[in-house]
Every structure is written in C-alpha cells, then in structure tokens.
Amino acid sequence: MILKNSQFDYWDRNIKYKSKKKSIMLQRSGFVVMVLLLITSSTIVSAGEQMPIATNGDYIIQPINDAEKNTGDVRWVYDTITQGMIHWHQRTVSSHITSLNMDLNWDNPSNSLRLKIYSPDGHLFGPFYDGFDGAYDGRINLNIINSAGIAKGTWYCEVYGEQVEGTQSYYI
Hints:
By secondary structure, the chain is α+β, with helices and mostly antiparallel strands. Helix content is 25%, strand content 37%. It has one helix and ten strands. The strands form three sheets. Strands 1-2-8-5 form a four-stranded antiparallel sheet, with no helix packed on it. A four-stranded antiparallel sheet has the order 4-9-6-7, with no helix packed on it. The protein starts with a helix and ends with a strand.
C-alpha cells in the first residue's frame, strides 16, 4: 500500500498530537504527585514530634506547642504597643544553660506582633510571628537550644507592632 502525501500528513499529525497529549498528561500527573507528596510530608511533620524550625550556628530554635506550654513561667516584662512601634527588651544570661525560653504573649490573634532576638555572640533569630508554633493564638513561644551552652551576656528582644488595632498589651 502506498500512502499519499495527504494520508501521510494525517498520520504524522495524529501521532504528534497523541504524543504531545501524552506528554502534557505526564507533566500534569507528575505535578499532582509532587503536590500530594508535599501535602503528605507536611502533615506527617505537623502530626509527629515537634521538629526544630530553624538553626543558626550551633543554635536550634524550637517552637513550644500547646501541650508543652507552661503557664507557670514567670513573665519578665509587661508592656503595651501600637501599630508600627518597636520596643526593645533585654534578658541577661549569667550562668551555663543549654536552653533559653522566649515567650511573647499578647492573647489577641487579630493583632500581629513580630519578634526578633539578638544574642550576645552576634546571632539574629527571627523574625517570628504568631503561628510559628502551629497555632494562631496571639503567642510566640520558643526555646533557643545550644548543647554547648547558651551565650552568656545580654540578649535583646525586638517586639514590633506589625498590625495592631488600638493599643495591644503583651508579656515577654
């Protein structure tokens, strides 16, 4: 059987069309599989053990989840803040410790505060926002961990009123 040019062109276009269609389908299915893997992996991490969120040098930053929150902790400063304001607070570490808790609590998730922490040995931690620990509850509660020891000296905390309606009180 001898194919005429028009028949050959028809089969050639048909094969190219089906090949292109399969390629697009493979790309789409690959994308769907990748999205499903990402969703599954993030669910496994959030449902499992609390994993360190960030590292900075020898430091590990670990959020404190609701089950670990200790309401008996002594809060060391009470203050108020408004939209766009920055307040600085300090905390002194004078003995050898391997974990330092920083807990910014304003109990109003409709307002947004930001926390940055500066160590005496020159590290910047953050910025941290509500939801860092997986809960949007008007609180940023975290541990700064260093198995070799937390730097001795003055630690500085910068609290910024990112989105604040009126005046917001907080403890840190």
